[in-house]
Every structure is written in structure tokens, then in C-alpha cells.
Write a structure and sequence with these properties.
This protein is 40% helix and 12% strand. With 341 residues, the chain is α+β, with helices and mostly antiparallel strands. The protein folds into 3 domains: 5-66; 85-144, no CATH class; 164-195 and 226-340, 2-Layer Sandwich (Nucleotidyltransferase, domain 5). Strands 3, 4, 5, 6, 7, 8 and 9 form a 7-stranded mixed beta sheet that branches. A two-stranded antiparallel sheet has the order 1-2. The longest helix has 19 residues, at 252-270. The radius of gyration is 36 Å and the shape is elongated. It starts with a helix and ends with a strand. 26% of the residues are buried.
């Protein structure tokens, strides 16, 4: 006696309608119910009718008959479902770690490491080596091993002068002495020049919905187009910034004029008893240690204001450490500069 074909013929369309709406446990039980109702051979007939796995239908039927189903809140009994690839393939984890060994980055004393290979590339190499693995599995196993996704860190430096620590201590002492005496200490630096006009810029601003500021589709510069060159001054004691914007070029004249304007607009009122001024700046550019126009301009400014101006330059290649506070000698770098009287 075979399965009830007439019953399955009527039930088939209803199963196709309801099964996609069910979770895994409910779907399994409904398939098992249909197999029981169809009689002998119902398991295979329901599997063929719905496209479900024969084992899934049989499991649902057995669950209904035994009453030994999944606990409340679960779709499977504990231990049910497919095993993870790391469990079925004991060599998978070792093969994965072997692949990332050569590209492994991070502090060996830290639990956090990262790899320069993508999860997809690792999965492809593992599969080619006979270890079936998906990118999701590779990613999950890397996470379990303490790996994280990280970008490059610009921390490695080139050659260091043997007297570098002495340079740190020199600049720290200069800054500490000036600040203790109530004298201003400034960090100065020019920033990337920007095109002036209808060009796209990073960032966002509040606007009525659907009414963005329309800018050019390309950033090709115009002939004789103007540029804005911001020159920043940071007052370390006041923790305050000042920006002067030039339009001609990143020149020593702009650098000196920016310091002059800071003193005229802010400095002389913030430090009414100042007799000295310290400037910390990068080694190159408009305020570089080889730039004679910068030195001559500061000398003229010192004569004009009556201030004794001391300049400390950072070593080449250390501009990213241009400080907000030059007093941290362990994390800041400086170059003993000449004093402009």
C-alpha cells in the first residue's frame, strides 16, 4: 500500500503556500505531519512533492511520533544540525593559521593580531588545499583566534639621530620654561591648500531635504584659479587655535604674517606681560629650518614687537608629531633651533 496520492494532490498546493512562511522547526513538523497523514511511503512522497530533504521529513515525523522535540525557544534539539567545519575537519584550523602566519601582524605580547589576506582569498586557498571552507567560516575562525580587521598604522620610522632623546629633552625643557614663566608657546604649521570656488569638499552641513549645495562634478583646476592656504597656530597654554588664510602661496611671508596677526589680534591681550615667544614647527616648508626668509621675517617681527622669539624645529619626517603640547618629551620630537632676537 503506497502513499495516498489523492490526499497529497490536494495538500501539495497548500504546503507550497505555507512552508516558506515557517521557521525551520515548524517546517519540519508540518512535513512530518503530512508524511504521517499520507500513510505508508509518505516520507518519500512528501519529500518529492515539496523538494525537502528526505531526512528532514523523516526527522519531523519521528519528532511527532516520539514527542521528543526541541525545547521551547529552540528549532533543534541540543547538538542537532550540521557540525561546524572546524569540528568535522580537524586540520582546518591549523591550515588556516599556517596560511596567515607569513602575513600576520601585531604585537606578539598582545592577544590582538591581524592579517593582510582577505577572508575570500584564505577560503579559496584552503579549498584548493583540500579543506572545504567558505569566506564566512574563515572570517569566523579568525575572529575566534583573536584576529581583527585593521588598517595600516603609520608608526614605523626611518633612521634616528643618536642624539634624538636629547632633542626631546631640549624642546620639553624650552616649552616648560616658557610656560612656567607665563610666556606663550605656539605650534605652527601650514595645511593643504584648497581650491576656491564651486568644488566639492569633505563634510556635511544642515540643509533643507533634497536641496544640497550644487558643486562641480570634477575638481579640475581653472586657469588662474585661486587657492586658499590655511596657516594654523596653536596656543598650547590656552588650548586654542588660530587660522590665517593666504591666497598667493605657502610662503615664509605668509608664515610670519600669521604669527604677527595672532600676536596683534590675540596674543598681546592674552599675554600682556610677555617678553618672549616660543614657536615649535616642522623642519621644512614655509617655516623650515633652512628657509632664510622665515628667519629674517621672524627677526623683523621680534624687532617690531620687542619679543625674544625662540624657534624649535622638528626633525625631518616627524611632522605628524607636531604637538598640541610640546612638553611630552617621550612622545614629541624637536630640533634645537636658532633664536631670533
Amino acid at each position: 500500500m503506497g502513499a495516498d496520492a489523492e490526499f497529497l494532490g490536494r495538500l501539495g498546493p497548500e504546503l507550497q503556500l505555507v512552508l516558506p512562511r515557517l521557521d525551520e522547526r515548524s517546517r519540519r513538523l508540518v512535513l512530518g505531519m503530512a508524511a504521517r497523514a499520507a500513510g505508508d511511503g509518505g516520507t518519500g512522497a512528501v519529500a518529492a512533492l515539496t523538494g525537502a530533504s528526505w531526512q528532514t521529513v523523516a526527522n519531523g515525523k519521528a519528532e511527532l511520533e516520539s514527542g521528543d522535540g526541541a525545547p521551547r525557544g529552540r528549532v533543534r534539539r541540543p547538538g542537532g544540525g550540521r557540525k561546524r567545519l572546524a569540528e568535522t575537519d580537524p586540520g582546518l584550523a591549523g591550515a588556516l593559521l599556517a596560511l596567515v602566519k607569513d602575513s600576520c601582524k601585531g604585537d606578539p605580547e598582545s592577544p590582538l593580531e591581524w592579517t593582510t589576506k582577505s577572508a575570500r582569498k584564505l577560503a579559496d586557498e584552503l579549498t584548493a588545499a583540500g579543506h572545504r571552507c567558505s569566506p564566512q567560516t574563515a572570517w569566523r575562525m579568525l575572529r575566534a583566534e583573536g584576529f581583527t580587521m585593521q588598517s595600516n598604522s603609520k608608526a614605523a620610522e626611518g633612521r634616528q639621530h643618536p642624539e634624538r632623546d636629547a632633542q626631546f629633552r631640549y624642546i620639553a625643557a624650552q616649552a616648560a620654561e616658557h610656560r612656567a614663566a607665563g610666556q606663550p608657546v605656539l605650534s605652527v604649521d601650514s595645511k593643504k591648500r584648497e581650491q576656491v570656488g564651486g568644488y566639492a569638499q569633505a563634510g556635511r552641513e544642515w540643509r533643507p531635504q533634497g536641496d544640497p549645495v550644487v558643486v562641480r562634478s570634477h575638481d579640475f583646476p581653472e586657469k588662474d584659479g585661486q587657492h586658499a592656504i590655511p596657516y594654523g597656530i596653536y596656543d598650547e597654554d590656552a588650548n586654542a587655535g588660530f587660522v590665517n588664510v593666504g591666497t598667493d602661496g605657502n610662503t615664509a611671508a605668509l608664515a610670519v604674517e600669521s604669527v604677527r596677526r595672532w600676536w596683534g589680534l590675540i596674543g598681546k591681550d592674552a599675554y600682556p606681560h610677555a617678553t618672549r615667544l616660543m614657536l615649535a614647527c616642522d623642519a621644512g616648508g614655509s617655516n623650515g629650518y633652512k628657509n632664510r626668509a622665515w628667519k629674517a621675517g621672524l627677526a623683523a617681527l621680534a624687532q617690531e614687537t620687542g619679543l625674544e622669539i625662540t624657534v624649535c624645529h622638528f626633525p625631518p619626517g616627524t611632522s605628524k608629531w607636531n604637538p598640541r603640547s610640546s612638553t611630552g618629551c617621550s612622545a614629541r620630537s624637536a630640533w634645537p633651533g636658532a633664536a631670533a632676537r
